[in-house]
Write a structure and sequence with these properties.
4-stranded mixed β-sheet, alpha+beta, about 240 residues, Immunoglobulin-like
Length: about 240
């Protein structure tokens, strides 16, 4: 009976710790408020726009990822911290400048296997995956056999495990978003999919939430992904 009460208290504490609150802020560039900036909570798929003075308000929880985007500005990211609530944030954005196209060197990649740091074929983890595995008590073998493990109960009580799971979801969505931007340029999305320029970034977030599209992208099946994203574009345009 006592264990059930403790479990219920834990659930209630998690509900309180991770309940959403309204976060307020102002988007500025060169000290001037900027209107029509898309503000997206990538973690829960909510969005809003700044008003003419750059002000915005959006619901969020600690650990959520906010994206600030507009065609003429560099994309800005903010991971929500508990200290961000109860005050007006000032989000600085930068105007795009003419830049040379980024050159990616693919043939000179050096990995830990080539350096002999890990056995060939050993599963690798992203930073968020490693943190979550350690926090939940799973063992990660490093190098020649050294293992890392923590008491999962301590992390459960503190709520850290739930936070790390949230960060892992955000990281995977970020990786999927990067793949989408490699396969489908902004020009393709505007010209072929008929998405208005101001909604290109919002459409990208809409697309990566589709499980079939996400699976096709993870399998690197560009043909299937192209077919699915065309269907998603039709759906998205009907909602506008």
């Amino acid at each position: 009976m006592n264990s059930q009460i403790v479990f219920m208290l834990l659930l209630l504490s998690f509900g309180t710790a991770f309940s959403q609150q309204q976060i307020k802020g102002k988007v500025v560039a060169n000290k001037a408020g900027i209107g029509q900036i898309m503000v997206v909570n990538l973690s829960v798929q909510k969005e809003t726009q700044t008003d003419a003075d750059g002000n915005f308000a959006i619901t969020a929880s600690e650990g959520d990822l906010l994206i600030f985007t507009a065609p003429q500005f560099r994309k800005t990211r903010l991971v929500v911290d508990q200290s961000d609530f109860g005050k007006v944030l000032e989000i600085q954005v930068e105007v795009y400048a003419n830049q040379l196209d980024e050159v990616e060197v693919n043939n000179t990649r050096i990995n830990p296997e080539d350096l002999g740091l890990v056995p060939r074929g050993q599963k690798t983890y992203t930073p968020a995956e490693r943190r979550l595995l350690v926090a939940t008590g799973n063992v990660i073998t490093v190098g020649t056999g050294f293992s890392i493990g923590l008491d999962p109960l301590l992390n459960l009580i503190s709520g850290r495990t739930a936070m790390l799971k949230s960060k892992l979801v955000v990281e995977r969505k970020e990786l999927l978003l990067r793949k989408l931007e490699v396969y489908f340029s902004d020009e393709y999305i505007q010209e072929r999919l008929k998405i208005q320029k101001d909604y290109v970034d919002a459409f990208k977030y809409y697309s990566i939430e589709n499980s079939k599209f996400a699976e096709a992208m993870q399998m690197k099946n560009k043909t299937l992904a192209s077919f699915i994203i065309m269907e998603l574009a039709l759906e998205y345009n009907k909602k506008q």
